[in-house]
Design goal:
437 residues, eight-stranded mixed β-sheet, six-stranded parallel β-sheet, 16 helices, globular
């Protein structure tokens, strides 16, 4: 979870362009109100959503977020940094078809319930929906029809590919997800893509005009990703530490990383490397069991979901950081936040050779053969045994984040997308909320 002290410290602002103004039915002027919908992570823990929200708020928009609860984010209603947050409980952490049906049904109901409450309280002009799931377009369409709200789709995950990565099949549900995706793009006024691969999906499968698709990358905040002195005790008495931060799920490749650890310890005879894995998820318990089964549990620290300070301590202490994401269509086309966070801290990286991963890291990473844990382990040892190369690659990554990838470079692109959105005509007559009537 995000430490509350970190998120209250203030937003990164891309530009001082104020929010567009609109006239009410009484002729007075007010700032645009934005309702952000996000289901898979609570705010302010979701780093991308929180950076977007704080940027919008700092530039004159009134922002409300509807999201689930989570560890450290249990309060149903609070205001942080001027952003109103409404949360709801989800029944379970889904891991199968029935689980996802229950999760998404509950999420849609609670999101609609809270959106309606917010409409009654103050109204909103823009629905900013972040997938997954791609069913949030149903709520956006309702408020487009009922209240004349504009709809901006923030494309976080390519859900058909995510389904295929999780269940290894293209069946009825895969085709259903393609249908949901199609109708999400069809109803969106503006789409935000996290990279060029996602932009091409918006243009091809989504059929969106090119001037309505904006690439806004999930650049790290250098205020959050702070350089700190290492903490030697995290090496657990060993010479080197390899760091990882991220979700413990089926497509994150933690099983491949653990097999790389086995290779390093038993095939290469190295007992001087420790691994610090920060993050929670549906596969955490299974990965802990696999580490014991492979005989490498003593070489691996699983922190579970951790606050920022613990995450930063682990990564700042690490000599090398690793991204073992499985090579598949989903991961090949997706930009992973952890890669740029490693780079922000000046850490060299080892990962499998994937399109967007290579675009982000470039010369800051070594690239192992896809889904080959032995080569992943060998590449890690290659970096650990070459301090000069580590320093050179870390400096390249840090410079790339500072010059090109940090959030301050992306915030103006988000504001440009909103400027284009507000320049579009409203498709239906706006009905004022009771608070405005």
């Amino acid at each position: 979870m995000v430490a509350m002290e970190a998120v209250r410290s203030g937003p990164l602002v891309g530009t001082n362009r104020p929010a567009e103004s609109e006239s009410t039915s009484h002729g007075s002027v007010r700032r645009s109100r934005v309702l952000i919908l996000v289901e898979n992570l609570p705010s302010p823990f979701d780093r991308r959503v929180w950076q977007e929200a704080t940027t919008l708020a700092a530039n004159g928009y009134h922002v409300t977020i509807i999201c689930p609860t989570g560890p450290g984010c249990e309060t149903y209603e609070e205001t942080i940094s001027g952003i109103r947050i409404l949360r709801y409980d989800l029944p379970i952490e889904a891991s199968g078809a029935v689980g996802y049906l229950r999760e998404y049904s509950a999420a849609l109901w609670h999101t609609l319930r809270l959106a309606w409450r917010e409409h009654r309280r103050a109204g909103f002009d823009i629905v900013h929906a972040c997938n997954p799931p791609d069913l949030l377009f149903l709520i956006a369409v309702f408020f487009k029809w009922y209240a004349g709200a504009r709809f901006i789709f923030d494309h976080h995950d390519i859900n058909p590919e995510l389904y295929e990565a999780k269940f290894h099949r293209r069946d009825f549900f895969y085709r259903l997800l393609l249908w949901f995706e199609h109708w999400t793009f069809r109803n969106a006024d503006i789409s935000i893509a996290t990279n060029e691969s996602y932009r091409q999906i918006a243009l091809s499968r989504g059929g969106m005009p090119g001037d309505r698709v904006f690439v806004v990358r999930s650049g790290p905040s250098l205020e959050r990703m702070r350089l700190q002195p290492p903490r030697p005790e995290l090496r657990c008495g060993r010479r080197y530490l390899v760091g990882y931060v991220g979700v413990m799920g089926t497509q994150e490749g933690i099983d491949l990383l653990l097999r790389a650890v086995h290779h390093i310890v038993y095939n290469r005879g190295r007992s001087d490397v420790h691994f610090g894995l920060v993050g929670g998820g549906s596969s955490l318990v299974a990965m802990q069991a696999l580490a014991r089964e492979l005989g490498v549990a003593e070489y691996v620290t699983f922190t579970g979901r951790a606050p920022d300070e613990q995450m930063l301590a682990m990564l700042n202490t690490a000599d090398v950081c690793v991204n073992p994401d499985v090579a598949n269509e989903m991961n090949d086309k997706s930009t992973m936040n952890k890669i740029m966070e490693y780079m922000a801290l000046g850490k060299p990286i080892v990962q499998f050779d994937l399109t967007e991963g290579r675009f982000s890291a470039q010369l800051a990473s070594l690239y192992a053969r896809q889904n080959d844990p032995l080569d992943l382990g060998d590449k890690l040892l290659e970096l650990l045994d070459d301090p000069q190369l580590r320093e050179q690659m870390g400096a390249i990554g840090r410079r790339r984040v500072v010059d090109d990838l940090q959030w301050s470079h992306e915030a103006p692109k988000l504001l440009a997308a909103y400027h284009a959105l507000l320049a579009l005509p409203v498709r239906s007559a706006r009905r004022p909320s009771p608070a405005e009537a």
